[in-house]
Amino acid sequence: MILKKCLATLALAMTLTGGASAAEPVKVGLILALTGPFGAYGKQIEHGVELYLKTNGDTFGGRKVQLVIKDDSPGTAGDVSKRLAQELVVQDKVDILAGFTLTPSAFAVAPVATEAKKPMIVMNAATSAITTKSPYIVRTSMTLPQNTAPMASWAAKNGIKKVFILVADYGPGYDAEGQFKKTFEAAGGQIVGDVRAPVKNPDYGPFLERIKDSKPDAVFLFLPPGAGTIAFMKGFEERGLDKAGIKMIATGDLTDEEILDSIGDQALGMITSFHYSEAHKSPENAAFTTAYHKAYPDDRPDFMSVAGYDGMHLIAAVLDKTHGSTDADAFVAAAKGMKWVSPRGPISIDPDTRDIVQDIYIRKVEKVGGKLQNVEFDHVSAVKDPGKQ
Amino acid sequence: MTVLFDGIASGLLLFLISVGLSVTLGLMNFVNLAHGAFAMLGGYVCVVLLNRYGVPFLATLPIAMIVSALAGVVLERTLYRRLYGAPHLDQVLFSIGLVFMSISTANYFFGDHQQPLHLPPMLSGQFHVAGADIGAYRLFLIVVGLVLAGGLQWLVTGTKFGASLRAAVDNPRIARGLGIDVDRVFVVTFALGSALAALGGALGIEMLGLDPEFPITYIVYFLIVVAVGGSGNIKGSLIASLILGICDVEGKYYVPQIGAFVIYLVMVVTLIFRPQGLFGRMAAK
Amino acid sequence: MTRRDASRWHPAEYAFWALPIVAYFVFPDHLALLAQIAIAALFAVSLDLILGYAGIVSLGHAAFFGIGAYAAGLLAQAGWGDPVLGLACATLAAAVTGFATSFLVLRGADLTRLMVTLGVASMLYVLANKLTDITGGLDGLQGVEMKPIFGQFAFDLYGKTAYVYCTIILFVMFWIARRVVHSPFGLSLQGIRQNAVRMPALGTPVNARLVAVYTLGAAYAGIAGALLTQTTQFVSIDVFSFSRSAEVLLILVLGGIGSLYGGILGAVVFMTVHEYLSGIDPLYWQFWLGLLLIVVVLFARGGIMGTLRLASKVRA
Questions:
Q1: Which tens digit of pLDDT belongs to each residue from A233-277?
Q2: What angle, 0 to 180 degrees and rounded to 10, lies between the N-to-C axes of helices A227-238 and A205-214?
Q3: Most Cβ neighbours (<10 Å): which of B56, B112, B180, C220?
Q4: Across the interface, do A238 and B13 touch by the CB < 8 Å criterion?
């Protein structure tokens, strides 16, 4: 009886993704957190990838692109991501690994890419060191320091002398904190306070009180987007910090288009630095956003969908260049130094680090046609990742 | 002063989101981990009425409670009642199953993003009293929480219904013999628990946010309050919430380095010295 | 079936343990998944020792899993990448932690124990997150490089070594656990679970037994954690998470508590169904998993093992 039950479950296991052996299509294994707390991120990346294939056709360098999508939720468990990557390589025989919502997922999979010799396209995970973990990694999203440094130098140049730093108490928070401090102090600014708030934090009241008591010109924020950000901003207004003349500055993931509507009018006037805004003015972005709204009327395009879109563009462009070869060395060689104009603006792949080089914009939250938007008013050209310099 | 006030408000928020669980877990002795799912239902009802149909915030609260109570009654009649006598672990498995289903369902209908909530001007902003900054919404939470705690305490200890409920939980067979309609008492109590969960969910959006992961994200907080307060005790839950809230807020203000530890530390220490919770009945097994 | 028979191996058990060997040849492409099933199974067995045999419910068993995972990871990162040495150290670290925290769970009802264990695991999670310099924090512990097992068998992309390694460890640990629960020690534990008040009258030191079995369960969980680190060569902070504690409890209850096999069957079924559902419906698989759990509770009391037992009784 035990035996029978086991055979039944094993048979079930056998029906998992029967491998198609036709060698012609290029298989791209997409590992994303599609459920759980980071499900919204994965969904946006998936939208970007699919939108690219929808608008640009799915055949490049003479080969059709076929997606194999896996959910590695919660996205913080490297063991799950790594196993899925192994399965994609061994069972599904994918040619390219892509996706990677969060850093642990990218770190855990990097050795698989190296060992299996598969190109690995990182479409979100933003810790600086990721690209150093395998020679086959190319990143099309951003790095944290890349967005943080311009914010700090802009603040120092624009009359902000004293800053209070509040970051979430985890790795990415420390990175943002470190980079901001470094750049801001080098530019002559002063840090008057520094707090690390627990990641899961239902109440920012006590921290807001501390900020208020230390009277800075601005508070620099780094929090995981979501309920925490919203609670913070509501508290910021409720406690009158805005009326006390304190500005809020942050990297743009905090005013991500996806959550901007949930924050509401409290976000108005907030200044952020980032590489993509839905309101970016360019013909490429106009085409992208129009296509996006048509395909996904319930959502708004944001930096994650753009990273997915550009990741797919990179794959397409490389396939065209290599005439359909996905050999990891050839792929990475072709990707290095590649330049194109993305919906976010001009971008390129740094030939030395395989990381993305892009313009970082300084934006302010404003109402445009009744919708909250990050309106760009200043920018720094071709920013390389300062984390690797 | 402001910090103390915030602590009290934070404590009452904890009380409001977990009082429904003190009813189902504490009074009915059902390990209802799906408590957060009912809270989430209340939250979504509130948000949808407010944003799509323009119903005033305060008017959405009773509607949210009624909808959730009805859902509670349906589930109690069809599923929950089958598990009243079952081992706690079966109840855990069952209610976690419900949580999973509720997460997917919420995601399907409302998407996975945070729901926006805009309070009426009456409840937002801050005013100054005696050197402290008092947030209007927090004051509102405190008032609602205290009124609710008083009412429930009276309902459980001072009314005939409360007496029937305690009898029905302690010994359903004898209670039946005494002419108590045990089935009805349980349905009504479960509906009450669900309604309270919904109220907590709706009131909590402003500070906790609302997305499909809500039942999982805050499950630990609900359980901590009930465990520290002692099951089957409204007063215990209230005092536990206050202690936890005040310790949490003060801890974060004065020693932010250990902010995240505080709430767990308070819980573990309390439970080591008082395994039944602060006001637990010994029989809660 | 009398108690005396229970310690002897039933023919079905031999057949059961032949299955992992069959699986190796039948599913050569799924070995990575199978290895993780074996790890989950060992983790569930460790919980069964304390829950099924001593009656201590825990919502924080990931504490020991995580300690084992980090111990093995830090050791390998420091250059001692021998897997067997790693296992030994992880076992020791987890056992020490288990011993130290066992005194917290001696008293109290189910809910109290659930929350105390949960509190301990949560604090370890916060601690691992704080000590970013040592643990890598949320980004995870990197640079975990494992040497080949006995200098011979390197971990490969297909998961062959990982699978064989995990399965052998699972079997050995299972065999030891089986001996333990059928020993007088194991029987005294069952006595404590059934009636803790009377056992001292039989001369059984209740608290000492509970401490011992809690430490043993923790050590087992540590081994499972170490296996996960070694086969994935990475440690994410998720090893301490609430969801990991809750998942192992689900697996065990699904499989059926108090039989050791329940945990293993639960792991096989849960992980396979999870993988299958999230493969066909990556967005809404949780719905179907939830439905399955509810159906199991309503119609298959006692989990898979309970149902199997019932079925064999009906037939007999």
A1: 888 888 888 888 899 999 998 898 888 888 888 888 899 999 999
A2: 50
A3: C220
A4: no
Q: Provide, as residue numbers in chain A, all residues whose Cβ is less than 8 Å from the Cβ of B4.
A: none
Query: Which pTM does this prediction carry?
Result: 0.88
Contacts of B88 in chain C (CB under 8 A): 57, 110
Q: Domains in chain B: how many in total?
A: 1
Q: How many separate helices (H) and strands (E) can be counted in chain B?
A: 12, 2
Per-residue burial over C117-128, b if 16 or more Cβ lie within 10 Å, else e, is: bbbbbbbbbbeb
Q: How far is CA B222 from the centre of its chain?
A: 6
- List chain B residues with CB under 8 Å of A237: 124
Q: Considering CB atoms only, which of B107, B118, B208 is closest to A202? A: B208
Contact: C12, A6; criterion CB under 8 Å: no
Least Cα distance to A375 among A249, A300, A281 occurs for A281
User: Which residue in chain C has the smallest CA separation from B283?
Assistant: C109
Task: Give A218's strand partners.
Answer: A163, A247
In this complex, the chains that touch B, judged by 3 or more CB pairs closer than 8 A, are A, C
| Residue B179, in any domain of the structure | yes
Q: pLDDT per residue over B126-177, tens digit each? A: 777 766 778 888 899 999 999 999 999 898 888 888 888 888 888 888 888 8
Q: Which domain holds residue B67?
A: 2-98+131-215
The answer to the question of residue B115 being in a domain is no
The sign one gets for the Cα dihedral C164, C166, C167, C173 is positive
Q: Which residue among B113, B248, B253 places its CB closest to the CB of A258?
A: B113
| Closest Cα in chain A, distance from residue B93 (Å) | 19
CA dist A218 and C170 (Å) reads 56
Q: Which domains does chain A have, with CATH numbers?
A: 24-142+285-354 (3.40.50.2300), 145-274+360-388 (3.40.50.2300)
More confident residue, C160 or C312: C160
Nearest to C165 by CA among C311, C20, C7, C280: C20
pLDDT reported for residue B60: 93
Neighboring chains of A (3 or more beta-carbon pairs < 8 A): B, C
Instruction: Give the DSSP H or E segment for B133.
Output: strand B132-135
Say if the Cβ atoms of C291 and B277 lie within 8 Å: no
- The predicted pLDDT at position B283 comes to 41
> Mean pLDDT of all residues in chain B?
86
Least confident of A53-67, A252-266, A288-302: A252-266
Burial of B172 (0-12, 13-18, 19+ CB in 10 A): middle
> How big is the CA angle at B154 (ends B150 and B159), to the nearest 5 degrees?
165
Determine contact, residues C238/A73, Cβ cutoff 8 Å: no
**Contact list, B79 vs chain C (CB under 8 Å):** 294, 298
Which residue, among B28, B262, B268, would best test binding to C if mutated, counting the most C CBs under 10 Å from its CB?
B268
Cross-strand bridge partners of residue B133: B128
Whether B80 is covered by a domain: the verdict is yes
The pLDDT value given to residue A267? 87
Do residues A364 and A375 make contact, with C-beta atoms less than 8 angstroms apart? yes
Task: For chain C, state the CA radius of gyration.
Answer: 19
Pairwise CA distance, residues A210 & A151, whole Å: 23
pLDDT greater than 50 at residue A8: no
C-alpha dist (Å) from residue B87 to B6, B90, B280, C60, C117: 40, 6, 20, 19, 19
Q: Cβ contact (<8 Å) for B101 and C294?
A: yes
**Residues of A with Cβ-Cβ distance to B247 under 8 angstroms:** none
Range name among A357-371, B257-271, C81-95, C191-205 with the lowest pLDDT average:
C191-205
Calculate mean pLDDT across residues B255-265: 82
